[in-house]
């Protein structure tokens, strides 16, 4: 037996995936939270991590062992939670080890480049890749910040291959949701990588850029005693993982640039109204923003 508990030399031809056995690639904030949540739900969790000491720490009370090449063929579900480029390469290097019938998902913040490459890797193989993005997290990173309840009530976005037939897609998503629901997700959405990346440019990426740029004012260093909820809310995601977000922003740069151009245009409208001391125009702009915010927060027709 290997140290991780699987027979040495096991291959997809001689192994079948074990129901409820999960492989987690990367033990950062998201991967660590996945591992903790599945562990608490009674699942068997094996993990891979670039930094050995973090993996050893997780093995004390969270993961059942290392996600080695012997264990990978026995996993029913594998979750890729590292940076997009690394997640794709990790799967490419081990695609031949994934067991027939297994599911592989990612947790990356962009979907087009990841899904296109991973669907190509999975083509002709007896396992299935589904793009995924858990809509949860914090401004912090790292395994030490991971929590078993990170995904409680959170949305999960899924991007199945467009090549799947309708019945196959329904069966696949039903099985995948069954494996993911014990983690705590409150809602599942199915979309295309293109639609995901268009919307995420606004709901996540633009917010990080604006927050990061906002704190570059010299006044930010003098905020103590003069700031409350507004400053705290707007600056929460200014403290970010620069290498990771650089990769995500560049992978989605067309959509993010379009969102930046929109917000720059709107900010220019406020600036011009202030420079002209035009109270009527300024009030109209402010009321437009208020009305749009309230409309955006109304229940979606599908949720009503």
UniProtKB/TrEMBL annotation:
Signal peptide extent: none
The Prephenate/arogenate dehydrogenase domain is annotated at 20-304
**One Pfam family in the UniProt entry:** PDH_N
Q: Which UniProt keywords apply?
A: Oxidoreductase
The record's section on InterPro entries has: 6-PGluconate_DH-like_C_sf (IPR008927), NAD(P)-bd_dom_sf (IPR036291), PDH_C (IPR046825), PDH_N (IPR046826), Preph/Arog_dehydrog (IPR050812), Prephen_DH (IPR003099)
Q: Which PANTHER family match?
A: PREPHENATE DEHYDROGENASE, PREPHENATE DEHYDROGENASE [NADP(+)]
Q: Which family does it belong to?
A: Belongs to the prephenate/arogenate dehydrogenase family.
Protein name (record): Prephenate dehydrogenase/arogenate dehydrogenase family protein
Organism, as annotated: Kribbibacterium absianum
């Amino acid at each position: 037996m290997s140290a991780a508990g699987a027979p040495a030399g096991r291959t997809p031809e001689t192994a079948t995936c074990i129901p409820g056995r999960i492989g987690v690639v990367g033990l950062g904030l998201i991967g660590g939270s996945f591992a903790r949540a599945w562990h608490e739900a009674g699942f068997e969790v094996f993990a891979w991590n670039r930094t050995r000491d973090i993996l050893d720490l997780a093995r004390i009370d969270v993961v059942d062992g290392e996600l080695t090449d012997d264990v990978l063929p026995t996993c029913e579900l594998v979750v890729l939670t590292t940076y997009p480029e690394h997640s794709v390469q990790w799967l490419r290097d081990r695609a031949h080890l994934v067991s027939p019938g297994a599911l592989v998902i990612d947790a990356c913040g962009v979907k087009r480049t990841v899904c296109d490459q991973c669907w190509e890797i999975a083509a002709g193989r007896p396992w299935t890749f589904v793009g995924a993005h858990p809509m949860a997290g914090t401004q912090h990173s790292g395994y030490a910040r991971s929590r078993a309840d990170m995904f409680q009530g959170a949305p999960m976005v899924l991007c199945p291959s467009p090549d799947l037939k309708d019945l196959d897609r329904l069966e696949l998503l039903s099985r995948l949701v069954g494996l993911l629901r014990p983690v705590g997700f409150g809602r599942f959405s199915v979309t295309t990588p293109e639609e995901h990346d268009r919307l995420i440019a606004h709901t996540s990426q633009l917010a990080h850029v604006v927050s990061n740029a906002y704190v570059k004012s010299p006044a930010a260093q003098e905020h103590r005693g003069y700031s409350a909820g507004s400053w705290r809310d707007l600056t929460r995601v200014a403290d970010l993982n620069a290498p990771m977000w650089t990769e995500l922003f560049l992978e989605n740069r067309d959509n993010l640039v379009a969102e930046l151009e929109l917000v720059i245009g709107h900010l220019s409208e406020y600036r011009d109204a202030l420079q002209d001391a035009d109270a009527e125009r300024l009030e109209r702009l402010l009321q437009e923003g208020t009305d749009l915010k309230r409309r955006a927060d109304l229940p979606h027709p599908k949720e009503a």
